[in-house]
Design goal:
Elements: E1 2-7, E2 14-21, H1 32-37, H2 45-49, E3 57-61, E4 69-76, H3 84-101, E5 106-110, H4 111-119, H5 126-140, E6 163-168, H6 175-199, H7 207-221, E7 224-228, H8 230-236, H9 239-245, E8 253-259, E9 270-280, H10 300-314, E10 324-333, E11 345-347, E12 353-355, H11 363-377, E13 382-387, H12 391-397, E14 401-406, H13 409-422, E15 425-429, H14 433-436, E16 446-447, H15 455-464, E17 473-477, E18 483-484, E19 495-496, H16 501-508
Parallel strand pairs: 1-6, 2-4, 2-5, 5-6, 9-10, 9-13, 12-16, 13-17, 14-15
Antiparallel strand pairs: 3-4, 7-8, 8-10, 11-12, 14-17, 18-19
Helix pairs in contact: 3-5, 5-6, 6-10, 7-10, 9-11, 10-16, 11-15, 13-16
The structure holds ligand BES and zinc ion (2 copies).
C-alpha cells in the first residue's frame, strides 16, 4: 500500500475517508469536524448517534456525486487522556483492516482531523500524528501467514487497499508532514521485517540465513556489513557464542552492520546488540515440548536490530543520525553429539571462563561475546542489548512488559521516554550487587545460571560481568513482548511483534545522547 498526500481541492478523492474523533457527552452536539469537512454529513442522522467511544466505528455513505470521499468512517478515540495516541494507532489500524475486508481500494484521512486532535491537546503535534497514522495504517494490514504453499493462499483473502492518502485542501501541507509520513512508513517497514524474521520457522531461518538478512539490509541501504562464520568465531575467541551453536549442523554466525554518515567516522557509535538464537530447544538441557515451537522467535532481539537498520535506511534524516553499529549473535541451540554438555567450561571473548550449568541459559552466552566484541572493537557512546532472555522476566512483567536493566540514570530516563513515545511498555529492573555472588562457580570465573528466583536479574547480572568500567550499557529483556498470543488491531496473533524497533528509532533521536566529534 502506497502512502501519499492528496489535494481534495484539485479533485483528489478516496473510497473511504477516516475521521478519528474523541468522545463527546450524549447531551453534547455532534463533533463539528465531520460537517465542516463533509457538508453533507451535517444532515446525516448517524452523526448524532456517534459518541466517539473507544473502538466505536460508524460508516456513513455520501450522497451520489458528493466528494471527496464516497464514504466516511468515524472512528471513536474514547476520552481525551494519555491513552489517546494509543487509541489513535489502534483505531487507524483497525479501520484499515475494515477497509480491506470491504475492498475499498483507496483510503484517506484529512490532515485537518489530525490538526484538530493536536490542538485538542493529544500531547503530540500534527507531524507526530501523521507519523503514527502512517505507521498504524501499514501495521494494521500486516499478516503473519508467511508459509502458505503456492496455490493454497486463501481465495477469499481480500487484497490490501492500494493507497492511503493524507487529504488536504488547497495550500500544500508543510514539508514536515510529508517527511513525517515517510518516517512512519519507514518504521513500519522495519517493524514488518522484524516480525517476518521472527515469525519464520527455524528450518527456514538458520544463523547463516539470519546473517544473509543482515547483508541484504546492508546492501539495500548502503551500510557496511561483515559476517564471521563458525571457524572465525572460534579463531576470534568467541568461545561462548560457539558453545551455544556447536550442537547444530547450522553453525553460528556473528554479523556486524554499520551506519556511518559521512564525517562521523571518528564518533563513538551507538551499538545495538541482539540475541539471535534462531531456534532454542534448550540444548542438552532440553526444554519441555509445550510451546517449544515459539522458540523460533528467540532471535527477536537480533531481528529488531535489523528492523532498526531498515528504519534508518528509510529515514529522511538518515545522514543526520548518529553513527550506529548493529551486532547480531546468531546460533541455533540444539542437542546433539557435538553439543555443549552441562558442566562444560568455556572461555569467552574477554578471557573469562564460564561453567555452563544449564545449556538453556544460552542467550546470555551468545550476548556476552557480542558485548565483549562491542567494547573491544569500538568505544561505544551507548551499548544496548535486546534479548528474549528469560522466562522469569515474563513472570515479573507479564506478556507485554520489557525489563530495562541499566545503572545509568540518564540512559534509563532516555529509554523510558523513547518507550513511551513508541507505545512500548518498559519497566526498570534492578542490578543488585548482592545477587551477583549467586553466579559463583566452584571451578570457573562464573556459572551461566543463578537461582530461579529473580531469574531475569541474575541473567542481567551475568551480562554486567562483561561490561567494562565507563561503558554506558542497558539491557532490554523482551522475552514477553517479543511474541503475542492474543491479537490486537496492530498485531495478528500468535506471532512476533517487532518490539524494540520503534523504541530504538526514538532513542537514536534523543537529544544529546550520542555526541559528534568534529
Ligand atoms: N529463550 C529463553 C527465554 C524465553 C522464555 C523467551 C519464554 C521467551 C519466552 C531462554 O533462553 C531460556 O531458556 N531461559 C531460561 C533460563 C534458565 C535456564 C536459567 C528460562 O528463562 O527458563
Ligand atoms: Zn534457552
Ligand atoms: Zn533463548
Amino acid at each position: 500500500m502506497e502512502i501519499d498526500f492528496r489535494n481534495i481541492a484539485a479533485g483528489g478523492a478516496v473510497a473511504c475517508a477516516l475521521l478519528p474523533l474523541h468522545e463527546r457527552a450524549a447531551a453534547a452536539a455532534p463533533d463539528p469536524l465531520p460537517a465542516r469537512l463533509f457538508p453533507w454529513a451535517a444532515e446525516h442522522p448517524g452523526l448524532r448517534d456517534f459518541r466517539g467511544k473507544e473502538d466505536e466505528r460508524l460508516l456513513l455513505y455520501a450522497p451520489a456525486g458528493a466528494s471527496p470521499a464516497e464514504r466516511i468512517a468515524l472512528l471513536g478515540l474514547g476520552k481525551r487522556d494519555r491513552n489517546s495516541l494509543k487509541n489513535l494507532r489502534n483505531a487507524v489500524a483497525g479501520a484499515l483492516k475494515f477497509c480491506r475486508e470491504r475492498a475499498f481500494a483507496s483510503v484517506g484521512l484529512p490532515t485537518a482531523a489530525l490538526n484538530a486532535l493536536a490542538e485538542a491537546g493529544l500531547g503530540a503535534d500534527t507531524a507526530t500524528l501523521v507519523r503514527e497514522t502512517a505507521l498504524s495504517a501499514l501495521l494494521g494490514l500486516y499478516r503473519g501467514d508467511l508459509c502458505r504453499g503456492k496455490g493454497n493462499e486463501d481465495e477469499e483473502r481480500p487484497a490490501d487497499p492500494l493507497s492511503f492518502s493524507f487529504l488536504f485542501s488547497g495550500v500544500d501541507v508543510p514539508a514536515a508532514l510529508r517527511e513525517a509520513a515517510r518516517f512512519g512508513a519507514g518504521e513500519a517497514k522495519g517493524v514488518v521485517l522484524t516480525r517476518d524474521l521472527a515469525n519464520t520457522p527455524g528450518n527456514r531461518m538458520s544463523p547463516a540465513l539470519l546473517a544473509d538478512e543482515a547483508r541484504k539490509v546492508a546492501e539495500t541501504y548502503g551500510f557496511s556489513c561483515t559476517v564471521f562464520d563458525d571457524e572465525q568465531i572460534v579463531s576470534m575467541g568467541m568461545g561462548a557464542l560457539y558453545a551455544v551453536g556447536r550442537g547444530s549442523r547450522n553453525g553460528p554466525r556473528f554479523a556486524v552492520i554499520e551506519h556511518c554518515p559521512a564525517g562521523r567516522e571518528k564518533d563513538r557509535p551507538l551499538i545495538a546488540a541482539g540475541k539471535g538464537i534462531t531456534f532454542d530447544s534448550g540444548g542438552i538441557s532440553l526444554k519441555p515440548s509445550a510451546s517449544m515451537h515459539e522458540m523460533k522467535s528467540d532471535m527477536a532481539g537480533a531481528a529488531a536490530v535489523l528492523g532498526l537498520f531498515t528504519a534508518i535506511g528509510e529515514a529522511p534524516d538518515r545522514d543526520a543520525l548518529p553513527r550506529v553499529v548493529g551486532l547480531i549473535a546468531a546460533a541455533e541451540n540444539m542437542p546433539g553429539g557435538g553439543a555443549t554438555r552441562p558442566g562444560d567450561v568455556i572461555t569467552a571473548l574477554n578471557g573469562n571462563t564460564v561453567e555452563i550449568q544449564n545449556t538453556d541459559a544460552e542467550g546470555r552466552l551468545a550476548l556476552c561475546d557480542a558485548l565483549a566484541y562491542a567494547q573491544k572493537s569500538y568505544t561505544p557512546a551507548l551499548l544496548i542489548d535486546l534479548a528474549t532472555l528469560t522466562g522469569a522476566c515474563v513472570i515479573a512483567l507479564g506478556d507485554y512488559g520489557s525489563g530495562l536493566f541499566t545503572e545509568d540514570d540518564s540512559l534509563r530516563a532516555a529509554i523510558l521516554t523513547a518507550a513511551e513515545q513508541a507505545g512500548d511498555l518498559v519497566w526498570p529492573m534492578p542490578l543488585w550487587d548482592d545477587y551477583d555472588k549467586n553466579l559463583k562457580s566452584e571451578i570457573a570465573d562464573m556459572s551461566n545460571i543463578g537461582p530461579r528466583e529473580g531469574g531475569a536479574v541474575h541473567a542481567a547480572l551475568f551480562l554486567r560481568r562483561f561490561i567494562e568500567k565507563g561503558t554506558r550499557w542497558a539491557h532490554l529483556d523482551i522475552a514477553g513482548p517479543g511474541w503475542v498470543s492474543k491479537a490486537s488491531p496492530l498485531l495478528p496473533a500468535p506471532g512476533a511483534t517487532g518490539a524494540g524497533v520503534r523504541l530504538l528509532c526514538r532513542l537514536l533521536r534523543h537529544p544529546g545522547l550520542c555526541e559528534h566529534t568534529p
